[in-house]
Amino acid sequence: MIATVSNPIVKFLWLFIPLLSIGIILNIFIGEVIVPLGALLDPTQAYRVIIMDIRLPEILACIVVGTDLAVAGAVMQAVFRNPLAEPYITGTASGALLGALLGLLINVLFKVGSPSIILMPLLSFLGAMLATIVVVAFGRGGWLSLILAGIAISIMFSSIVMILDTYLLTIIPTLPAIVYLLFGTVSGINWGDDITMISVSLPVLTYIMVSAREVNLLMISDEVAQASGTNPKAFRNLLIVLTGLLTAVSVSFTGIIGFIGLVTPHLTRLSISSSDNSRVIPLSMISGSTIMLYANVVSKVLITGTVMPITAITSLFGVPVLLFLLRGGRNE
Amino acid sequence: MSSYIVRFVNARIGYNEPIIKEITLNIPRPSLTTILGPNGSGKTTLLRAIIKYARIFGGYAYIDGKSIDEIPIRDLPKYVSYSPAEIYSQMSLTVLDIVTSSRNGEGWINKDDAVAVLKYLGINNIASKRFDELSTGQKRLVLIARALASKASLLLLDEPTSNLDLSNKYRVILTLRRIVNDKGITVIATGHDIDLALISDWVIAIRNGDIMAMGVPGDIINSKILSELYDIDVEVLEINGHRLIYVHNEFMND
Questions:
Q1: Membrane-crossing residues (chain A) (predicted)?
Q2: In chain B, which residues have their Cβ closer than 8 Å to the Cβ of A262?
Q3: Angle of helix A92-110 relative to helix A232-254, nearest 10 degrees?
Q4: Of residues B231, B227, B197, the one with CA closest to residue B214
Q5: What does the pLDDT look like over B81-117, one tens digit per residue?
Q6: Which residue of A has its CA nearest to B45?
Q7: Contacts from B243-250 at CB under 8 Å and sequence distance 24+?
Q8: Which of A236, A256, A285, B54 could pair with B48 in a Cys bridge, judged by C-beta atoms 3.0 to 4.6 Å apart?
Q9: Is A87 in contact with A77 (CB distance < 8 Å)?
Q10: In angstroms, rounded to a whole number, what is the distance separating the alpha carbons of residues A103 and A40?
Q11: Least confident of A132-146, A210-224, A267-281, A317-331
Q12: CA pair distance A275, A242, nearest whole angstrom
């Protein structure tokens, strides 16, 4: 019995731990500048700066964002009992983006300076919550209506973002941060950003991991959850807030990165043949980080010397998964 | 220890507004109790009141002599477990996942206890199967196993015999009878099943949010009460000590 339960997990780890390690190594060497192997043994000052101050912070950001989005997706799918739910599809990410851009606008207009480190994620979180609340309010009619409400809100928020974006560019034509946010990228991330992201994510992720079985209860039924000692409404609301935080942290530092939250939990469930969140959530952290690392490598190598938007790469393999799930969902 | 596991005194129960008006009832322990009544009569609402999922607007409600108001949600597993008729989930939890996603008074159900309960109900062979791939009868037994695993002395089962074929229906009915006899706990089941009511210790007939009749099955399962309860001409016959029902209608030439 123990063997049959642990086997898929062992297999999963045997596959993903080496993949993750290779992903990290590739990200150290590959980028706008290719770091030669020899530089590891005898690094010149320039290579040391590239590795320590550029590549490693980016790698850590990939791991944090991959983890945050994967966990947000897994939790949303359970909370909404909807296999298609994830921060991008439910409109949460577009709300977070609008909030982050507003933070940037305030920063530019009023020259707030250093508090902007807090202002952008904070407004991003408020935007994420606003979008999610509207989507939940209008998407009550079944599993597809949540998705449709999410798409509608995404489109609306994207329009506001475009208007805001154009306005920002007229004030400061050379503002690079806008492009970062719209396209999704980890380039430019520094250790300070990583520390902020981790200090928000770590407590949230820890709480979610500890409560993974309660997340299962929500997936079963509200009455069952309540009789088992978990207030379903309160717990669901708390989880919506926590996934909003995870999304806001990712979006305000690395912009829109779609479909990691959708694909990763399903990939994990498929490879361990289980939807038990006490296994799916921690393992999705590993697979989410891995996917992000490779998406980042691909974004750097497609055109030498240029970084592609990561969301273009994640969406490219995320959308087929979405279509596949839509087809499966019709049989239910 | 109170001789009644559940008591309602002048209780008005509902969601936004009361559906059940001023009911007073006692459910003896241990017992297999069936709540009969037409659709929308308030059967499920009554069960939900016991797990605080429906609101009690006035009057009193007790589990095990303790006022339901005073039991916080996190302590509910000490008193009660609940099994819905169906669970709708597109997520592929296994049978074991479902049974271990349950709390007793102390904490989460461990795997050994879960397997023991599955074995007790004779379904340990499907422990690692996906729940959504099971037959309706198997699903029902798994949900009963999940409720039983919590070791609460009160099991609430919403429509445990609905949508089952004849043999699965009897399997569930006999399982419920066996649980009550073996473990000395109380099972309250809702439904329309006369056979389940007949094998019960206590039957409550609810109509339009009001108790129409309450008592041992011999006093409740008769032509007069059933006809009034379901608003249709029902005849109860007794053959070799078994009660059978049939419904008069224009297509039957009697």
A1: 12-35, 56-76, 88-110, 117-137, 143-164, 171-189, 238-260, 306-326
A2: none
A3: 50
A4: B197
A5: 999 988 876 667 899 999 999 998 889 999 999 999 9
A6: A223
A7: B243/B194, B243/B198, B245/B194, B245/B221
A8: B54
A9: no
A10: 39
A11: A317-331
A12: 20
List the single range of A46-55, A180-189, B66-75, B212-221 with lowest mean pLDDT.
Answer: A180-189
A8-320 CATH fold: ABC transporter involved in vitamin B12 uptake, BtuC (1.10.3470)
Best to test chain A binding among B6, B44, B68, B73 (most A CBs inside 10 Å) = B73
| Token reading at A319 | 């959308």
Does A77 contact B at CB distance below 8 Å? Answer: yes
User: What is the chain B residue with the closest CA to A75?
Assistant: B91
Residues in B whose CB is inside 8 Å of some CB of A read 48, 51-53, 73-77, 80-84, 87-94, 97-98, 100-103, 108, 111, 115, 128, 146, 150, 156, 158
Structure tokens at A295: 């998406």
Pair A87, A240: CB distance under 8 Å = no
On whether any CB of chain B is under 8 Å from the CB of A56, the answer is no
Name the 3-class secondary structure at A35. Answer: coil
Flag whether residue A231 sits within 8 Å of chain B, measured between CB atoms: yes
What ranges do the domains of chain A cover? 8-320
Query: Which among B71, B97, B157 is the top mutation candidate for probing chain A, defined by the most A β-carbons within 10 Å of its own β-carbon?
Result: B97
Q: Quick one: average pLDDT of A44-49?
A: 85
- Asked whether the predicted pLDDT for residue A314 surpasses 70, the reply is yes
> Is the pLDDT confidence value at B63 over 70?
yes
Rounded to a whole number of angstroms, the distance from the CA of A33 to the nearest CA of chain B is: 44
Looking at the partner chain, which of B53, B98, B108 has a beta carbon nearest the beta carbon of A220? Answer: B98
Strands B242-247 and B234-239, by their bridges, are antiparallel
Beta-strand relationship, B154-157 and B81-83: parallel
Average pLDDT for residues B130-147, to the nearest whole number? Answer: 92
Nearest CA in chain A to B71: A229
B77–A228: do the CB atoms touch at under 8 Å? yes
Task: Identify the residue among A4, A228, A238, A274 best suited for mutation to test binding to B, counting B beta carbons within 10 A and taking the highest.
Answer: A228
Contact (Cβ atoms closer than 8 angstroms) between residue A84 and residue A239: no
B208 Rama class: left (phi>0) / alpha (psi -120 to 50) / beta: left
Structural tokens at position A22: 């290779």
Q: What is the pTM of this model?
A: 0.91
Q: What does the H/E/C string look like for A76-134?
A: HHHHCCCCCCCCCCCCHHHHHHHHHHHHHHHHHHHCCCCCHHHHHHHHHHHHHHHHHHH
Amino acid identity, position B23: I
pLDDT above 70 coverage of chain A, percent: 92
